[in-house]
Amino acid sequence: NERNQMDSCTSRKRKRVADAAAAKLCLKKVNAQSRKRATSTRRKWTNEEDIQLTKCVEGYLKANRPIDFKAIARVVSNRTAKQCRERYENSLQPNVKRGEWSVEETLTLVDLIITYAQNWTAINERYPERT
């Protein structure tokens, strides 16, 4: 009888510990999601932000230094380093080709896809002028 009571007590403690751990994990996820929502509101890039970003990147390039997007994000207000990097690489970088793809480009891309399947990093390394 004593043994059953002890097992019951231990079982209840384990359940409380498990419930507390689950609650802590849940709270952690909720906090992470609310932080993410707070920092990731989508809005269009303004001309002023584009100019700031471009000037900062040009400063790093002229100084022949690696581009520090974390530092740039501190200058371009309300933007993360990732947003700054993606905006520059996909939209503002001067050597990126925009517009219609030529037949030669399309054939080259098809060859790269045949060779590298869906390894887009490898494809991008061999075809850097397109994003």
Describe what this molecule looks like in 3D:
The structure is a single chain. By secondary structure, the chain is an all-alpha fold. The protein contains 6 helices and no strands. The chain has helices spanning 2-39, 47-62, 69-75, 81-92, 103-116, 120-126. Helix 2 (47-62) crosses helix 3.
Helix and strand arrangement:
Layout: H1 2-39, H2 47-62, H3 69-75, H4 81-92, H5 103-116, H6 120-126
Helix pairs in contact: 2-3, 2-4, 3-4, 5-6
Strand count: 0
Number of helices: 6
Portion of residues in helices?
over 70%
User: What is the molecular shape?
Assistant: flat
Share of residues in strands: under 5%
Q: Which stretches of 5+ consecutive residues score pLDDT under 50?
A: none
| H-E order | HHHHHH
Q: Structural class, judged by helices and strands? A: mainly alpha
Q: Specify the biggest β-sheet.
A: none
Computed CA radius of gyration, to the nearest angstrom: 26 Å
Q: What is the terminal-to-terminal distance?
A: 72 Å
Mean pLDDT: 81
